[in-house]
Amino acid sequence: MTWEELEKAAEQCAKCALCQTRTNLVFGVGVRDARVMFVGEGPGENEDLQGEPFVGRGGQLLDVMLTLIDLDRRKNVYIANIVKCRPPKNRDPLGTEQEACIGWLRAQMELIKPRIVVCLGRIAAQVLIKPDFKITQEHGKFFDVGGVQYTALYHPAALLRDPRKKPDTFVDLKALQARILELCPETYGRS
């Protein structure tokens, strides 16, 4: 399946009730052959309105975080979410919604073939790394999942709510940068 076919099929998805309340499908953004992929839990209001992940206040913070380690959503990473439609009132996506939508993310990953996947927040880490993932204890640690390196950072929205987590996140970002340089240095060669 091509990118275009995949996105068109996702736009027509009605596997869960979230499709009934969305303004836009929030499929993903970035470089479609990126070696590094960031995955959040689901779109919020701004993302739903614009059809792009991480564009609100949390997205602005994510862009700053990326810049700190020479990454950019338009140049060398891909950003997506577990669910592609906004849960009402920005609530956490339900397990049934995650299950209905995870196939789209898996198909994106199959096309991208990332070497490193960065989960943004607890929910993404519990879905992609392990169900009992504890973000407060395991953020910044790397896990091998099927030959791909996975790690998790605090979600940008959590950092906005609790800025005391920012120093830990800076350390995690620098560890991520070192892992990128080790496993896929070509990430930094993209213009």
What report would you give on this structure?
The chain has 191 residues and is α/β, with parallel strands linked by helices. It has helices at 3-11, 45-50, 57-68, 95-112, 122-128, 135-138, 156-161, 166-183; strands at 29-30, 36-40, 78-81, 116-120, 143-145, 148-153. It has one domain (3-7, 26-181): Uracil-DNA glycosylase-like domain (Uracil-DNA Glycosylase, subunit E). The chain is 42% helix and 13% strand. The chain has a six-stranded mixed beta sheet with strand order 1-3-2-4-6-5, sandwiched between helices. A hairpin with a 2-residue loop joins β5 (143-145) and β6. The mean pLDDT is 96.
> Strands across the major sheet, in which order?
1-3-2-4-6-5
Helicity level, as a percent range? 40-55%
Number of helices: 8
Determine the CATH topology.
Uracil-DNA Glycosylase, subunit E
Short descriptors:
42% helix; 191 residues; single chain; 13% strand; six-stranded mixed beta sheet; Uracil-DNA Glycosylase, subunit E; 8 helices; alpha/beta
Summarize the structure.
The chain has 191 residues and is of the alpha/beta class. It contains eight helices and six strands; from the N terminus they run αββααβαβααββαα.
